[in-house]
Amino acid sequence: MENNSLELINYRNENYNKSLNNKLLKLASNIPDSNGSRYFEKIDKNIGIVTDEFMYNYYKDCVNLIYISSLKYKEIIENNKIDMFLFVTCWRGMEDNDWRGKRKQENILSKIIRLCRSKNIPTLFQSIEDPSNYNVFINIAKGFDYIFTTDENKIEDYKNHCNNENVYLSMFGVNPLFHNPIGIKNNKKLKEVLFAGSWMRKYPHRCKDMKKIFDGVLSSNRELNIIDRNFNENAYFYPKEYIPYTSPSINHEDLQKIHKLYDWIINVNSIKYSPTMCAMRCYEAQALGNAIISNYSIAVNNNNPNIFIVHDSKEVNSILNSFNNEEIYKHQVYGIRNVMSDKCVFNRIEDMMKKVYPDFYINLNKKVLVVTKKITPTIKESFNRQIYQYKYLVEEDKAKKIYNEYDFIAFFKEDYFYKEYYLQDMINGFKYTDSDYITKDSYYYNNQLISGIEHNYVNKMKDKYKTLFDIKTFNLDFLLSLNNSIFLNNGYSIDPFGLNVKNIISNNENSSLLQKIYDKLRNEFLVNDKSTSNNEEDNKLLKENKKEYKFSVIVPIYNNGRYLLNKCFNSLKRSSMFNDMEIILVDDASSDKDTIGIMKSLNRENENIKLYRFNDISSGSASRPRNKGIEISTTDYITFLDPDNEAVNDGYAKLYKEIVNSDYDMVLGNMLKAGNKESVMKNRRSKVIDNSRQYEVNNNFPVNSIQAIMIKKNLILEKNLKMVNGAIGQDTLFFIELMLNAKKIKIIEDIIHIYYAAVKTSITNNNSISFFEKSLLLEKEMAIKLERYGVKEEYIYGKLEFFYKNWYMSKLKNADKSMVMEITKIMLEVFNVYNHTHIQDNEIKDFIECAKSKKYDEIKKIYF
């Protein structure tokens, strides 16, 4: 059926969801607006702007915007003091068909640029349509003084095509006065899943991904609510099967509030393989308090790992139905924190302003004074636990002298357990409200939720020890005198998380005693790390748990806590055997405070998690933490999962069911690799292999991800198998050793985990000299062990050249060009450890000859 056929139009008119919009608008009517921002101040700059409604709403509250129409541009510029002119790529402006059409844009914008130059007004071009529409707007960009793009990959193209070095990255963010969580708890959440967007046939991959997600939602006992921005445009009609879920467009401002009625929304990226460009909705929906399901995008995965990425329809059901209401709410709060902490439009505009005005400054790092009666070890621990860095701890009698040097004041109490993000979340409340204080009207008492007002304005402050005050509004003596609840206007209450009121006892001696008892018990369930011990032997697990788990998942960690929580842990949480798995987090001396906080929080809140922390110097690879994880595991079966990857399809449960009570030493599954494309690696078919050593040799040493296997631990212990400390690619050798030592294995067809290959922080994506140095460590050990197993020759003639060319030599084109000599020497040494002289591949032969002859200029020209 043709999209624009009369039959489909009639079907749409009869079957679309006619009651949805009125229902949503009525529910959203009791959601308040933001009353401003106490944290941010509007920047005193007048920006003449050409853009559409969406980007106008993004910028409108951070600077003075003067909209420039295509008809009256000269009059507007002449009659207003304009500090800079900004064109944001758009298909139409804000007034009817204003600015519609490429030719009109090019013609009038060129005149505006000339007029601005005559008045010394800087001109800024911002593309939010890269890379897909780069060619549409490139001629316009050539006339501007400064160019900003959402796609990092297009920066060099702009510099070359525009002959302009003033080209910069400017990623999306949120306007906290427009995109915020105010009122998200005013209504009972709708069970449907919301998508606000169009069916765009010009992007077939987008439509394919939409169908994948839509079908997954509908098969999960949920319904869709689709608000179609192009409802009356025949070219954007949805397929017939989705029309009953569609409804007409709703104005932009109301749509923000409507998002707050839902727990879950869908995001679809038209651009999937840019490291920085993704749909703006990714940011906006987090600020609005939504949990987000999205198609794959490198930018989404790199910058917003808390967004659930769907590769298969079947994953949608486990995402929607594996978390309880509290867990969903915590996830939503994480998203709010993620964007409000450093992705507000004020952060973005500051960066743009500094490119034009190098001396430009606004205070985006407000200071918090934390006051307590007495600085005890417990208070100091609570203070040091805080992720928010612009803070100072002081006792009450010393606070007065420095009171006016700070922006906000908090009070800490001995009996209260302040979690890692307590101050950060309270501070963020001032960003999207112009309140005098931010409080927690709802909170946890001995881990039990005490109900109260959440994410709404309040006029009663119940407890100063769970409140953050604006110093300019309150006198210190007044705040010190507060011991009970008090009616105070212009407050705002956020979520209940981040604070646990452990005990309220008036008798200080009893309170102190109870605190000691509590701390003793708590320490018995935490891991002692070397931050409290200088002896590596003392760095041992103290967390005792009598439960017998069925298998262990070992997770090596180094400064990747955001991924640990949102990718690794949340994927394990969706497993049917989550409560039966022993999750062992082994930290390789992380220095990132966010990572440390997330690890400790996960360990504190999940009885099946064990945390072991090295607190010396990072070893530089996953080997040391993985080896330690094997050592301290208590189950008979082992698997591994990296923090930036995901376990899917209940794969570990499937592997376990195959291996338990069997004579298999290992059970293997498949892996989906998501990088610059999405593909199943190896795609092995189901089979049982009775002689795994022979299979490995006969098939030229195939390698399986160790994150997609379940291993009998005895195989590792009896053969004393360890990964090479400090090496990269250590899992390759480890798997080969497993295959050479195992007797019988089974392969299943299921995809067990997703490997996100384009993660920026991944060590394998780092092509510096350290990558090659660490690879040399592996290859030296590989050559020794293969010879010990008696298969070195088979490896040389079956695998070496293929691997050397397609792995190491392929890395050279992105390697550090200033280190050609050093890297080349290492590359030569890597090859020489195998004493392979009869080289078959001509490209390898040429490279080795150049390396031996020290022809570094030629090597740089050809290979780098």
UniProtKB/TrEMBL annotation:
Which segments constitute the Glycosyltransferase 2-like domain? 552-714
Q: What Pfam families is this protein classified in?
A: Glycos_transf_2
Report which superkingdom the organism of origin falls in. Answer: Bacteria
Record-listed E.C. numbers: 2.4.-.-
Sorted UniProt keywords = Glycosyltransferase, Transferase
* Coiled-coil blocks: none
Keyword Disulfide bond recorded = no
* EC main group: transferase
UniProt xrefs under InterPro entries: Glyco_trans_2-like (IPR001173), Nucleotide-diphossugar_trans (IPR029044)
Q: Name one GO molecular function term.
A: glycosyltransferase activity
Q: What PANTHER family does the entry give?
A: GLYCOSYLTRANSFERASE (PTHR22916), GLYCOSYLTRANSFERASE EPSH-RELATED (PTHR22916:SF51)
What is the name of this protein?
Glycosyltransferase
